[in-house]
Amino acid sequence: MTTSTSVAPKESVPVQTLMPRFAYNKSQLNERLQKQLKDAELKFVTAGSHSINALENGGVLDLVQTAIDIGAQVGKLNVRDIFYGRKTIRGEAISKFNHFSTTIRQILDEPIKNHCDAATCDMWTDDYMKRSYLDFTVFWTNDKYKLSHCLLRCKHFPEDSKTGINIWQEIKSIFESFNLSFGDTPIVTDQGSNMVAAFNITEEARIPCMAHRCNTTLETAWNRVDTKNSTFAVFNLTIT
Could you give the CA distance from residue 124 to residue 141 in angstroms, rounded to a whole number? Predict the structure, then answer.
């Protein structure tokens, strides 16, 4: 006795025909498509108040490429139907951050026990928005003396909160979040008065940054020469 089974044919998934490689060059698009692309990029900048540099941002290009790849596999879609939006992505970012924090804590556990970790901390201001940030990076070595590092925090600091006590409170929370040892984690900083004051609160092992010291020394020396030698001053102005 023989039995037969019928298998329903699979539905064909619409797949966009891949364009020849030369067509990926925008100069090979016809005039209508070129204008459509230019208008869309211009609208992105003007209507969204984005920097024109955002058009060349790697993250934006990767996002667009991902959408193109998905469209090539499943056919034409309305992007508004598939984008997750700010609430979902915010949750995804928090989830990944929590996973990252857990992973880094596990990685740092052994170096901390072996006293093979150190850190750098800096307060800086971005050139465009003039906002101040505090960043904290940890460095560690393993039993094969491989040096690794990881940025643990980069936080906006309003101008009126850049006091020694506020800086220390933020650093303290980083220590507690990643189980760093108080008094046993050397930290390199510049000679900013608020940064020095922050680490003096609990007398942490703070080491002055040699790069900052060299820069200050050279800047001071050159400024003195500038006042005495006009040619040297013009030279410095030209190269800076």
Answer: 27
For residues 38-63, give the mean pLDDT.
Answer: 91
Domains, the chain, ordered by start:
21-82 (no CATH), 88-208 (3.30.420), 211-240 (no CATH)
pTM: 0.67
Measure Cα distances from 75 to 15, 69, 79, 130, 190 in Å.
Answer: 5, 10, 12, 45, 55
Exposed, middle or buried: residue 116 (CB in 10 Å: 0-12, 13-18, 19+)? middle
pLDDT tens figures, 139-175: 999 989 999 999 999 999 887 788 999 999 999 999 9
Which 3 state secondary structure label does DSSP give 3?
Answer: coil
Distance CA 192, CA 50 (A): 34
Pairing between strand 117-125 and 187-189? parallel
Q: Region of 182 please: left (phi>0), alpha (psi -120 to 50) or beta.
A: beta
Q: How far apart are alpha carbons 177 and 189 in whole angstroms?
A: 20
Write the DSSP assignment of 142-185 as a string of letters.
-TT--EEEEEEEEEE--GGG-SHHHHHHHHHHHHHHTTPPTTSS
What are the tens digits of pLDDT across the range 185-233?
A: 999 999 889 999 999 998 889 999 998 888 888 888 877 777 777 777 7
Alpha carbon distance 164, 230 (integer Å): 40
